[in-house]
Amino acid sequence: MTKHYDYDLFVIGAGSGGVRAARMAAATGVRVAIAEEKYLGGTCVNVGCVPKKLLVYASHFAEDFEDAAGYGWQLAVNSFNWQTLISNKNKEIERLNGIYKTMLENAGVNIIYGRARIDSEHSVIVNGETITAEKILITVGATPSVPEFDGADHVISSDQVFFLPELPKRIVIVGGGYIAVEFASIMNGLGVDTHLIYRGDNLLRNFDQPTAKFVANEMQKKGVNIHYSSNISSIEKLDTGELKCNLDNNDILFADQVMYGTGRKSLTNDLGLDKVAVKTHKNATIVTNDRFQTSVPSIFALGDVIGTPELTPVATAQGMVFVNQQYGDDTKTISYDNIPTAIFCQPNIGTVGLSEEAAKHKDLSVDVYQSEFKHLKHTLSGNEERLLMRLLVNKANQKVIGMHMAGPDAGEIIQGFAIAVKAGLTKAQFDVTIGIHPTAAEEFVTLREIEYSF
After folding, report:
1. Do residues 119 and 272 make contact, with C-beta atoms less than 8 angstroms apart?
2. pLDDT for the residue numbered 1
3. Per-residue confidence (pLDDT) for residue 76, from 0 to 100
4. Judging by beta carbons within 10 Å of its beta carbon (0-12, 13-18, 19+), is residue 347 exposed, middle or buried?
5. What is the pLDDT of residue 64?
6. Domain 152-262 in CATH: superfamily?
7. How far is CA 377 from CA 70, 83, 254, 371, in A?
8. Which of 235, 310, 373, 434 has its CA 20 to 30 A from that of 47?
9. Element (H, E) at 68
């Protein structure tokens, strides 16, 4: 390493990818510093995956209590306390922040709290101090994006939901992606009168559409009011404190809160990229090669900020590959094919491989195996929720190229099956696998009849 720099590696952003890269790089013996202006752990730990999943758990108890009656439990639920949930959630996040801090310090990483801005190809400025480094790694991630319109100052983003002092009685959520859909399920499950507004005809347009349509129907059965082909044109705050939402189809909705889940934008503004001519895409994400190198050879970037799938495991995997490329034996690569993911709406969605739409776009000939049924649990609970499981099989080689599930623990189930899809297993290999009975997961290895082909 070149010793006349303050550090061998300076990481900007202590989210999932940045923390992993900093820790692993320090473990190889290089001198590492990491700068963070908000909180250790980034979006996932603080205002994303972790607290959201805790809210998902909380929102499902009301349904669980109702289901219990069919099993002989007589329960009297007096009330739900939002403040208790948020307080306990905050304590858990603080604990995780502390763990991240300890991990970095134990690895020998110097943590600097403050906004880092690139000053040159080998230097950054943090809190007025210039710090030099042989290599700079940008892992600043993304943040919720709210469009500009009349009354936009009255809305909140998904970040702010986690810190609401009170649970609203009525909420309007705008968006059709996984964030909006998840929070619609959360709020509905907590007893909030929930309206989901989406400008398109179908939710979750980047996911398998038969699965998405199935879940949208199940959400409506549970009480979520979905308004398709509509959008908010303006919002007025009335003297009563309630929000009057004027829709572009002339409908009017009244709410106590309006949340936008309409996408995220890269946090590259005011980072100093223009000062050193780091190239970016039109959407502000950073242009990199397969070694995470930007147009400036000494500056690298990974995670949400480069426009790859915005998933915590993707960022951490990139961090590991980056460290191996720069400070290891340079044998690691990363593939973005067959990345499993889940949407924690109610019911959950788990998915890996190609969606039906993606398979059609690739002009593949596909057999679709599909099953829809009531979960065994609900034969006694009386709950009308249905479960959907889908297999997409390439006719040419009989490989399973897509798996999609909507139902309880879909993410947990698909995580295991993702290994099979990643390994390129065939339908015949699924067929000879003996299932665990009685489980929902066994359906994936007992599907025998082709539902349809394309």
Report:
1. yes
2. 53
3. 86
4. buried
5. 96
6. FAD/NAD(P)-binding domain (3.50.50.60)
7. 10, 31, 37, 17
8. 235
9. helix 49-68
Tokens describing residue 61:
């108890």
pLDDT at 52 over 60: yes
Enumerate residues 6+ apart whose C-beta is below 8 A from 331: 324
Give the Cα-Cα-Cα angle 214, 220, 221 (nearest 5 degrees): 90
Does pLDDT of 2 surpass 60? Answer: no
Neighbours of 362 (CB within 10 A): 11
How large is the average pLDDT for residues 422-448?
98
pLDDT in tens, 229-250: 999 999 999 999 999 999 999 9
Question: Could you give the 3-state DSSP secondary structure of residue 347?
Answer: coil
- 13 with 36: CB under 8 angstroms? yes
DSSP for 176-223 reads SSHHHHHHHHHHHHTT-EEEEE-SSSSS-TTS-HHHHHHHHHHHHHHT
Report pTM. Answer: 0.96
pLDDT(138) > 60: yes
pLDDT digits (tens, 9 = 90+) for 142-199: 999 999 999 999 999 999 999 999 999 999 999 999 999 999 999 999 999 999 999 9
437 is catalytic: yes
CA–CA dist 52, 320 (Å, integer): 26
Q: Are the beta carbons of 400 and 430 closer than 8 angstroms? A: yes
Q: Residue holding tokens 């995997």?
A: 317
pLDDT band at 78 (very low <50, low <70, confident <90, very high): confident
What are the tokens at 237? 């705050």
Domains 7-143+265-327 and 341-453 share a fold: no
- Of the CATH numbers 2.60.120.10, 3.30.390.30, 2.60.200.30, 3.40.50.1360, which one belongs to the domain with range 341-453? 3.30.390.30
- C-beta separation of 164 from 327 below 8 A: no
Give ∠ CA 38-40-41 in degrees, rounded to 5: 115
Q: Calculate what percentage of the chain has a pLDDT beyond 70.
A: 99
From the candidates 154, 195, 281, 437, which is the catalytic residue? 437
* Residue found by looking up tokens 């996911």 in the block: 207
CA distances from residue 128 to 45, 121, 139, 399, 441 in whole angstroms, order as listed: 28, 17, 21, 57, 56
CA–CA gap between residue 168 and residue 90 (Å, rounded): 19
8 Å CB contact between 402 and 425: no
Architecture of the domain whose range is 7-143+265-327: 3-Layer(bba) Sandwich (3.50)
pLDDT tier, 371 (very low <50, low <70, confident <90, very high otherwise): very high
